[in-house]
Amino acid sequence: MDDSDYDSDIAFELEESARQLTAFEQPRAYELGEIQRLRKHWTRFAKNSPTLQRENLLRPPPTVPQIQAYLKWRVRKGKGRLDSKVNINTLKKEFLQLERAVRYEENHTYSRRDRHVIVKYISRLPGLEGVSTRQRSKPVALFADVSDIIYFMLCCDEYVWIHPREMIQTI
Predict the structure, then answer these.
(1) Does the residue 12 lie in any domain?
(2) Is 32 in the same domain as 103?
(3) CA-wise closest residue to 57 among 71, 75, 40
(4) pLDDT tens digits, 94-113
C-alpha cells in the first residue's frame, strides 16, 4: 500500500468524522419546529438573493452581512404580535435559532466577535427600522397565588381579629 493512498484515506475519514454530528449535537425534539420555521423564513428571504443558494439552505454558513440583511428583511416583512412590527426580543431569539441551525447543519459556530456585532446591530434596529420594543404586560401575581393568599388571610391566619369587618378591610 502506498503512503499517499493511506494519507488520503485518513484525511477522508477525518473529514467525514468532522461532518458527522454526534448524538449530543443533533437537534432536540423541541427545536425541530423552530428550525423548520426558520428554514421557511430563510427560504423566502433567499428567494430574491442571487448570492444565497436555494437548494442547500444555510450551506455555506451565512456571513455576518447576510445575517444582518436577513434580520432587516424580517423587520420589514414580519408581523408582530404586540405591534405592527417584529419585537426586538423576537429578533434576538431568531438569531440564536439561526446560530443553532447553522451549528447543527454545517457544524459551524460563529466567533464571539461575530455574535457581538450581530447583537449590537439588533440593538440599533429600533432607531433604524422602527422595530417594536414593546413588552408584554405581566401581572404582579397569578390568580391562583392571589386566591391562596386571600384564603390564608381569611381562614388560616392565627391573628385574632377584634371585629369581623377589620379582616375584610385589611384585605
Answers:
(1) no
(2) yes
(3) 40
(4) 999 999 888 888 888 899 99
CA 79 to chain CA centroid, nearest Å? 16
Distance (Å, whole) CA 21 – CA 123: 33
Q: Give the mean pLDDT of 66-91.
A: 82
Tell me the three cell numbers of residue 45: 428571504
Domain with 164, as residue range(s), is 139-171
How far apart CA 66 and CA 51 sit, in angstroms, is 9
User: In sequence order, which residues have a C-beta less than 8 Å from that of residue 122 and are 6 or more positions away?
Assistant: 71, 88, 91, 92, 95
Among candidates 67, 65, 51, 50, which has minimal Cα distance to 102? Answer: 67
Query: For 12-27, what is each residue's pLDDT tens digit?
Result: 666 665 555 554 577 7
**Residues pairing with 87 in the sheet:** 132
Of all residues in the chain, the percent with pLDDT exceeding 70 is 78
Residues in CB range of 99: below 8 A, 6 or more apart: 109, 110, 115
154, 157, 160, 166 alpha-carbon torsion, rounded to 10°: -40
- Whether residues 80 and 41 share a domain: the answer is yes
